[in-house]
Amino acid sequence: MRILETEHLTREFGGVIAVNDVDFHVEKGLVTGLIGPNGAGKTTLFNQITGVDKPTSGRIIFDGRDITGLPAWKISRLGIARTFQNIRLYKELTVVENVMMGLHFKVGSDPFRHRFQQAVKSYIFASRENREVYRRAMEWLSFFEMEEHAQDFAGSLPYGKQRELEIARALAAEPKLLFLDEPAAGMNPSETAHLMQVVAKIRQLGVTVVLIEHDMKLVMNICDSITVLNFGVKIAEGTPNEIKHDKGVIEAYLGREEEDE
Amino acid sequence: MLNFFQLILIYAGIYALMAIGQNCITGYTGMLSLCHAGFFCIGSYATAIMCKTFGLSFWLSLPVAAIATGLVGLLIGIPTLRLKGDYLCIATLGLGEIIRNIATNVNPVGYNSIPRASLFGYQFASRNKLAFIVLIWVFVLIFYILFQQLAHSRIGRAMIAVREDEVAAQSNGINVTKYKISSFVLGAAMGGIAGCMQTAYTLTVQPGSYTFMVSVMVLCTVVLGGMGNGKAVILGAFIIQFISYLPQLTGLTNVIPAQAKQMIYGLLLVVMMLWRPQGILGRDRFRYGDPRTRREKIAAFFRREGRNAEGGAV
Ligand SMILES: Nc1ncnc2c1ncn2[C@@H]1O[C@H](COP(=O)(O)OP(=O)(O)O)[C@@H](O)[C@H]1O
Ligand SMILES: [Mg+2]
């Protein structure tokens, strides 16, 4: 079953077409990889789906519902969470406070109660609510084996831990679909290995994961399905094995190596 | 001398009320607004008009002033809050001046001999400063507690998230616009309440007292004390008022020109930015659940008591 589908999704920046008529889809419960050379439009595609940016044209269907053009905060509440390529933690806040932010609409937000009434309740019973949010945030930290860092400032964590904290914060919202933008970027091999375990654990929770990654070993290992973008266009999709032997993909990557390295 | 100390206490209180509002807007939500003089003006005028023209009591004018200012805040906030940083600062600066100009045009001479506030038959006369000091500082205490509660709630956390990173906040399901506007309206209302107190004290309202300089002083108060820190803001109000009355206190009114304090504020801002941009006391660190904080020690104590009472049940 498809949890997410984009139809003819396009995003232009001035003259640059960063995402060009892309039909991207994600199967429920699987780990999907999104790969492609730098500047292929992967982050832009994530931004359109998560509402951080609005598409020029095309549609995004999530869980059978058209979410095109909805504001980011509404999309997160529908069950899509994400991390950012250039880590966007609340660096001046503590680790546990960061995860507490991820719980913003999990505690103290009752959809059946009027917003104003809700706000008054959150205000009056703040300390009770805080305790509940804190408790749940600590549970997520223990899931990531980071309890001992709870009171450290997020900005003071080592790089790999920051990436994991951002995942923890996203996961605290209990999303149906989780987008990870280059989660292993800047990680050392042992951190990457730990990340792979984390993704496996997240998958066991029943969360569908989509990840952008350059580490081919990681991608081939943990993804059930891979989509390849190049110059904003989807050039291939399939199982890791199919992608490995796809002519177009090999060309795109070889071409890049000559330019880049 | 004592007289000046009493004046400092009164104006420190009025500025503390304004600074609590500015802190909500700038300290917690991170919006650089520079129009508290405008809100102060609306609060003062609303009180003057309510008390004098409509014969309302001070206690009824107070909520009217707060609501009127809040509504103007809403009106200003909806179009401007999408702007960021310097742009928001300039837009609000202009709007503050517009408010003052409108007030000047509505009534260029201002209002005089506004009826006094009274409480249980006691009349608050300007010459009895002590009574005003108590009245104003009771208000400061009340609003300090109310805004501390806000800062430590889910709402306050969302405001802080907006300040720290708007994009991340949105992705955490936080309706950034809603929190920006709410915070701006609450902050504006505080300016209105401060204006109401000022009117109750001086019993006159003149458009000349709501210049851009007031907005600068209020921002200074927050920056000096510490952005996003309730206590610091009150400390800042004291320091700013102390500087403001420095010529009178030292008896050097003839030597030190009145403009000197503006220079001192400017200098103070520059020095703070260079030396301690987070303010004297810095930001309030909540450290939820940190066993080292006093708050947690108290909470742990009560939890233990509760457990004992319930016979071991959690
Ligand atoms: N906000 C923006 N304004 C203008 N151009 C952009 C913007 N964001 C991305 N682009 C362009 O879109 C293309 C795709 O970028 P991006 O999605 O970041 O690639 P990837 O994540 O695959 O490396 C690039 O050419 C980039 O320069
Ligand atoms: Mg990218």
Could you characterize the architecture of this molecule?
The complex is a heterodimer of chains A (261) and B (314). With 261 residues, chain A is α/β, with parallel strands linked by helices. Chain A has one domain (2-254): P-loop containing nucleotide triphosphate hydrolases (Rossmann fold, 3-Layer(aba) Sandwich), CATH 3.40.50.300. Helix content of chain A is 41%, strand content 23%. Chain A has helices spanning 42-50, 72-78, 95-102, 115-124, 126-143, 159-171, 189-204, 216-222, 240-244, 247-260, and strands spanning 2-13, 16-22, 25-27, 31-35, 57-62, 65-66, 80-82, 177-181, 208-212, 225-230, 233-238. In chain A, helix 3 packs across helix 5 (126-143), helix 3 (95-102) packs parallel to helix 6 (159-171) and helix 5 packs across helix 6 (159-171). The radius of gyration of chain A is 19 Å and the shape is globular. In chain B, strands 1-2 form a two-stranded antiparallel ribbon. In chain B, 71% of the residues lie in helices and 2% in strands. Chain B has a single domain (2-305), classed as ABC transporter involved in vitamin B12 uptake, BtuC, CATH 1.10.3470. Chain B has helices spanning 2-28, 36-53, 58-80, 85-106, 129-151, 154-164, 166-171, 176-202, 212-225, 230-244, 246-250, 260-275, 294-309, and strands at residues 117-119, 122-124. Chain B is mostly helical. The interface between A and B is large, with 43 and 31 residues. Residues 13, 16, 18, 36, 38-44 of chain A line the site of adenosine-5'-diphosphate (ADP).
